């Protein structure tokens, strides 16, 4: 039984050892490819390394890669994608930012970075990133969906607060009523209008039922403001 237990333990440990060796061997080949100027081959090997040993691949990036080289952002992008797949959004965000330092107007990377920001709870940063995406690609579907819903929900939250505060006034004066109406107008002019613009772009690309319903609600509110 002891022999069997020992064999079973070694069997379980072997894959980890082999993977570690495989990552080291692959990184050695990555280093050789880089020294020979074979960037495409190096990136291919690095992707394989990230699949079998992401931590070792990351350490190689920080300690062995010239960050000013042309291949550096490609390696950073590889690490970002792998960390995103494993739902490690802190690391994914870190490496998307590394990539964007060299290619600040890369739309797919900006979208991925915004996703990571959302998953990290950095909603306002995600808004800024998606807005940058739309400056580069006004019809980007993901950015329009996110911003349309974001500004609609913000408007609903602000509208609810203003209405609740106004209801607390037993006998509102004309001045208080005017402030209440002006507050609603400001919300509509800003957040509701932004939401409308983004969601209309969504509908131009595909028939989203949810976007259509939200636009109908905004339309009803708009009519009530007149």
Key descriptive features of the protein:
mainly alpha, Serine Threonine Protein Phosphatase 5, Tetratricopeptide repeat, elongated, 226 residues, single chain, 84% helix, 0% strand
Question: What can you tell me about this protein's structure?
Answer:
This is Tetratricopeptide repeat protein. Residues 1-20 form the signal peptide. Keywords: Signal. By secondary structure, the protein is mostly helical. It folds into two domains: 50-137, Alpha Horseshoe (Serine Threonine Protein Phosphatase 5, Tetratricopeptide repeat), CATH 1.25.40.10; 138-225, Serine Threonine Protein Phosphatase 5, Tetratricopeptide repeat (Alpha Horseshoe), CATH 1.25.40. 84% of the residues lie in helices and 0% in strands. It is built from ten helices and no strands. Helix 1 (2-35) runs antiparallel to helix 2 (39-52) and helix 5 (89-102) packs antiparallel against helix 6 (107-119). Mean pLDDT is 89; it is low at 4-19.
The CATH class of the largest domain is Mainly Alpha
Mean pLDDT over the full residue set = 89
Number of extended strands:
0
Terminal CA distance reads 85 Å
CATH superfamily of the largest domain: Tetratricopeptide repeat domain
Tell me, briefly, the overall form. Answer: elongated
Number of domains: 2
| Biggest sheet architecture | none
In terms of per-residue confidence, which ranges show pLDDT below 50 for 5 or more consecutive residues?
4-19
Order of helices and strands: HHHHHHHHHH
What is the CATH topology classification name of the largest domain? Serine Threonine Protein Phosphatase 5, Tetratricopeptide repeat
Q: Look at the helices and sheets and give the structural class.
A: mainly alpha
């Amino acid at each position: 039984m002891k022999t069997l237990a020992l064999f079973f333990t070694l069997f379980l440990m072997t894959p980890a050892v082999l993977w570690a060796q495989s990552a080291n061997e692959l990184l050695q080949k990555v280093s050789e490819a880089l020294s020979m100027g074979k960037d495409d081959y190096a990136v291919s090997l690095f992707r394989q390394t990230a699949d079998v040993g992401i931590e070792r691949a990351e350490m190689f990036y920080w300690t062995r890669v010239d960050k000013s080289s042309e291949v550096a952002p490609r390696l950073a992008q590889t690490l970002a994608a792998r960390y995103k797949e494993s739902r490690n959004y802190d690391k994914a965000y870190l490496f998307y930012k590394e990539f964007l330092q060299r290619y600040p107007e890369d739309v797919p990377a900006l979208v991925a970075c915004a996703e990571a920001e959302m998953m990290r709870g950095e909603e306002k940063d995600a808004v800024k990133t998606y807005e940058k995406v739309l400056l580069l690609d006004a019809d980007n579907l993901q950015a329009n969906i996110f911003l349309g819903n974001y500004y609609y929900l913000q408007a609903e939250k602000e509208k609810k607060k203003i209405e609740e505060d106004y209801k607390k006034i037993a006998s509102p004066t004309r001045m208080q009523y005017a402030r209440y109406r002006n507050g609603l107008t400001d919300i509509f002019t800003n957040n509701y209008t932004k939401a409308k613009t983004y969601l209309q772009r969504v509908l131009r690309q595909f028939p989203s039922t949810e976007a259509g319903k939200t636009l109908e609600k905004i339309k009803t509110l708009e009519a009530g403001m007149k």
